[in-house]
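Hi support team,

I submitted a single chain yesterday and got back a structure, but I'm not sure I'm reading the token output correctly. Could someone confirm the output below corresponds to the sequence I sent? I've pasted both exactly as they appear in my results page.

Thanks,
R.
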Amino acid sequence: MDNRIYGYARVSTREQNEDRQIEALTKFGVPFENIIVDKCSGKDTEREGYQYLKRQILRNGDTLVIKELDRLSRNKNDIKHELEYFKDAGVHIKILDIPTTLTDFPTEQMWVMDMINAILIEVLGSIAENERNKIRSRQREGITLAKKKNVRFGRPEHPKPNNWDSVMLRVASGAIRPIDAMKELGITRSRYYYLCERYDFKRCSK
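Hi R., thanks for writing in. Yes, this is the structure output for that exact sequence:
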């Protein structure tokens, strides 16, 4: 059976677009249907598409093409581990941004290319890891600054209805039932019980 060629693309969030990577992969010769895409962080290698490609699809003699080294991971040790894995599995890796990986050299010259690629991968792996560390540092700084400005994170807090206190007094006295209170307050059952817990109202369900 002929050796096959696959491509892998990754973007960090669902809002980002992978078209640039896919265009580069198809231009190199990877069939569009053979490209696997993940939309998640490169902090590690536990990504659904990547693991499926690695464990279920690629086999000895196949070629995997990626546009940039950090599409595998932004962790230098993970990058080294993954490249060693593919080498042991007999899968050829071609990285479009590392031209020396794109040419098939004679066997007697492979040690030279291996040495050059190892140096390039070490340098680029360090750059990818440093970039991720800088991103995380900027995120922490931004959160710290936002907290100083009293910016609140998470879902916005919805205030209780204006007639909450008067309605709940009637619930507490037994004058109306919770189902009647929900109608008067104009809120859902889940919202009602959330507010009861939020404002520590003990007689919501009585």
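A quick pointer for reading it: Strands lie at 5-11, 35-39, 63-66, 92-95. Let us know if anything else looks off.

Best,
Support desk
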